Amino acid sequence: MQVGAVLVFDAGPLELRHGGIDIERVRAYTAARLSAPGRSAALCDDPFFSLEYHVRHAALPRPGDERQLKRLAARIFSQSLDREKPLWELCFVEGLEDARFALIAKADAALAAGPAGGDPLAALLTETSSDAIDAAARPEARPTPGRLAGMRAELARRARELTGPDALGAALGFGLRGALNALERALASAEDVPLTGPAGPHRRVEWLALDDADLCATGERLGATPHELLLATLASALRVFLARRGLEPDALALRALTPIGVEGTEPGAEAPQVALPVSEPDPLRRLDAMRGAPEPSGPAGAELSILRDLAKLSIAAAAGRPASLCVTDLCVPSGPLFLLGAPLRACIPIAPLGPGHTLGIAATRRDGRATLSFAGDAALMTDLPLLADAVAGAFDELRRLSSATVHASPPRADQSRVRNSRAEA
Prior knowledge:
This protein is an alpha+beta fold and 425 residues long. The chain contains 13 helices and twelve strands. The chain has helices at 23-35, 51-54, 66-77, 109-112, 120-124, 147-161, 167-187, 212-222, 226-244, 283-290, 306-318, 384-406, 415-424, and strands at residues 2-10, 55-64, 88-96, 100-108, 203-211, 254-257, 273-276, 325-330, 338-339, 342-350, 359-366, 369-377. The strands form two sheets. A six-stranded mixed β-sheet has the order 2-3-4-1-10-9, sandwiched between helices. It is globular, with a radius of gyration of 25 Å.
């Protein structure tokens, strides 16, 4: 399983005279950062390693817009990583309008969630706007071990993991729970679990941004947290989305995996489930049903580790019980972040599809924007733009209801009494 994200930057010092970006400088910077001490986990010991293969360069027809970027991202995420090469790729996309460029990143979930942390984005982004490239010689690749040597090393690693007093019991319990959950997913029918089915390799992606100040203000007026408000908005949008597909939402029970606790989460942790109240016709009652839903983990640090977090969350989701979809609310740094002096403007996670899922939803909040992204099977989710429109409409409905609650009209006077008092006067 692979995880990914789309990041949008102002070109800044990376912009060339013709409007492109200095990709050779970006490649030199990437080689230096990923070869630095503590960062080598992102580069496997590949004797035939080619940086140009992993740091790719693409361009949109100028002026490129979000619609074109979404199509390119969908095509890139539809392509599987080559298992014979290090399992990460970065594609820098120039040509975006307003002098911007995008970075489309993807990595293998097992690599990104590993103990060494193979998230290339965490290595590339910094808190300072410096565009200096640290000189760091790339370490020489160690000889590739043979099959027997590799098997012995893997057995030794797994033996070390089981040396703790409770490690064996935890591993056996996790394996048994995973087997039971897989059996339950196999027995679950499509009628009981909507939006599920065999997903193909091709993807379709969509995203939209909500005003974070509006989100917080609306939640405050309605007495809900932003996370609860987002879940209620998604429940409302999915009700409309499923009704357009000919389903009867009043009779549906939609369960969502909401993997949250990234920090301190054990590898065998199971993602919690939340029942999305799509059968409830009243939007305020849908919001009431979301009160008390598990909140995302605490504020993120300065490092943007979105691929590592997505990998941990996807592993937790894969070990969970059958559900209709996975909804991920990620904590990302709120401070300024730069890539060679180019400021980060948008961070869009691409949710991986869980076992049997045809739709995944991810959300981030940063720089005054609450960004929701949707990833789905390209053949089964051709109507993802309609879901994004339904999310925008559901949020507008809750915002109007919150304003009506605050600015409720005072009770009108009894007009008959008004007329009588005028007559007496």
